[in-house]
Specification:
Low-confidence stretches: 1-8
Radius of gyration: 21 Å
Oligomer: single chain
Family: Belongs to the nucleobase:cation symporter-2 (NCS2) (TC 2.A.40) family.
Strand order of the largest sheet: 1-4
Strand content: under 5%
Protein name: Uracil permease
Pfam family, one: Xan_ur_permease
Shape: globular
Helix content: 55-70%
Membrane topology: Multi-pass membrane protein
GO molecular function: xanthine transmembrane transporter activity
Order of helices and strands: HHEHHHHHEEHHHHHHEHHHHHEEH
């Protein structure tokens, strides 16, 4: 492997650091691992709202490369379809069709761009005050554990009914991935997720829960039906789309910053300062704008891929960029897209048990490493409120605008941290 020169900020615990470039064969396999990890969620969003999944795959790849470019190739992240907008997009599709969804996606992306320009002008020093470890740690725990029910549903449910075969495949996938992660050495130790998915898939084929007919029927080359703005449609304003989706961008920004916090911890960097929060928000927003113009849903950074980074200790931006290139290529190759799409939910669920747990564990590490003092009542209160609201699934619904549990927990955590005294009267 070709390693970059050592720098003062280099993370020597990583097997491959951010600027390290693997050999071609290793790069190929590591990138495919990230592709498999994000594929299920990225194509599920368009399926839920009635958009061509190949377009979502294409826009996620282009969006990720755009993000890497905007952040000067300093942040290893993958951007896939965002679930935060699903409910609103479903309503818009029924009322006005995809042109309305496209305008909503573009408007949400532009909110990111505007906020990034404001931060570029006035700075982001407020981040350390607003988001100290006692707030950041629990938020990251919530990001991981709030996905636990999704992992469990994927692992056990077949058409909303408990299926023992599904659960057996999920547990096998989980256990074999853990074994690969703990006992493999050399290059195979970097791809335990990919190996786990392959083994889980083979078992799923043997027990008959994989639809191979869709793979056989798929064409080798298939051009995605791009719904290009201003080309496929006569321009028309959809105020309901803009009003419905633009405010949700402020919600997804909190999740965006949560993911940056996790990446800060994993890579031993401070991405809020270098390349800067304004660049990360600008890249994320521009990705959604591009997605809206080609016919895809808004995008966001993916916790699943962050989980892979945590498990494998491979933080190379080359690997994430490779996954984005494969996503673009595979969006035109029908059989490969169908093969990846045929990976059954229990395989994804088994992997998710581990990946989502890795995210939550990094939240615990932040609390431990920063010696957060739980003898102080304020710290107990802040952590308790964040965990219960976030994991409990509480949300705020105002018309089409929804404040998700993660966002609501973040808002409460920030407010409590700013207003509660450092010590209660009984502690002085």
């Amino acid at each position: 492997m070709q390693n970059s020169p050592k720098k003062e900020f280099r993370n020597d615990e990583a097997l491959l650091d951010i600027q390290d470039r693997p050999t071609f064969f290793h790069w190929l396999i590591l990138s495919i691992q990230h592709l498999f990890t994000m594929f299920g969620a990225t194509v599920l969003v368009p399926l839920l709202i009635g958009i061509n999944p190949s377009i979502a795959l294409f826009s996620s790849g282009v969006g990720t490369l755009t993000y890497i470019l905007c952040t000067k190739a300093k942040i290893p992240a993958y951007l896939g379809s965002s679930f935060a907008f699903v409910t609103t997009m479903q309503a818009l599709m029924k009322a006005d069709g995809y042109p309305a969804v496209a305008q909503g996606a573009i408007s949400a992306g532009l909110v990111y761009v505007v906020v990034s320009l404001v931060i570029s002008r006035f700075g982001s020093n407020w981040v350390d005050r607003v988001l100290p470890p006692v707030v950041v740690g629990p938020i990251i725990i919530v990001i991981g554990l709030s996905l636990a029910t999704t992992a469990a549903s994927d692992a056990m449910l077949n058409n909303n009914h408990y299926d023992l075969k599904y659960f057996a495949v999920a547990i096998f996938t989980l256990l074999i991935t853990i074994i690969f992660n703990l006992y493999l050495k050399g290059f195979p130790s970097m791809i335990p997720v990919l190996l786990g998915i392959i083994c889980g898939y083979l078992l799923a084929v043997m027990v008959g829960i994989v639809d191979l007919q869709s793979v056989a029927a798929a064409k080798w080359f298939s051009l995605p039906a791009f719904d290009v703005m201003f080309v496929n449609y006569h321009f028309k304003w959809y105020p309901a789309a803009i009003i419905g989706m633009a405010p949700i961008a402020f919600v997804t920004m909190t999740e965006h910053m949560g993911h940056i916090m996790v990446l800060n911890k994993l890579t031993k960097r401070n991405f809020f300062k270098d390349p800067g929060l304004h660049r990360t928000l600008f890249g994320d927003g521009l990705s959604s704008v591009i997605a809206g113009f080609v016919g895809g849903p808004p995008t966001t950074s993916y916790g699943e891929n962050i989980g892979v980074l945590a498990m494998t200790k491979v933080h190379s931006v080359w690997v994430l960029g490779g996954a984005a290139l494969f996503a673009i290529i595979f969006s035109f190759v029908g059989k490969i897209s169908a093969l990846i799409h045929s990976i059954p939910t229990p395989v994804i669920g088994g992997i998710s048990f581990l990946l989502f747990g890795m995210i939550a564990s990094n939240g615990l590490r932040i609390l431990v490493d920063n010696h957060v003092n739980y003898e102080l009542k304020r710290n107990l209160v802040i952590t308790s409120v964040i965990l219960v609201i976030g994991i409990g699934g509480a949300y705020l619904q105002l018309g089409h605008f929804q404040l998700t549990s993660i966002a609501l927990a973040t808002v409460f955590g920030i407010i409590l941290n700013l207003i509660l005294p450092q010590k209660a009267r009984s502690e002085k």
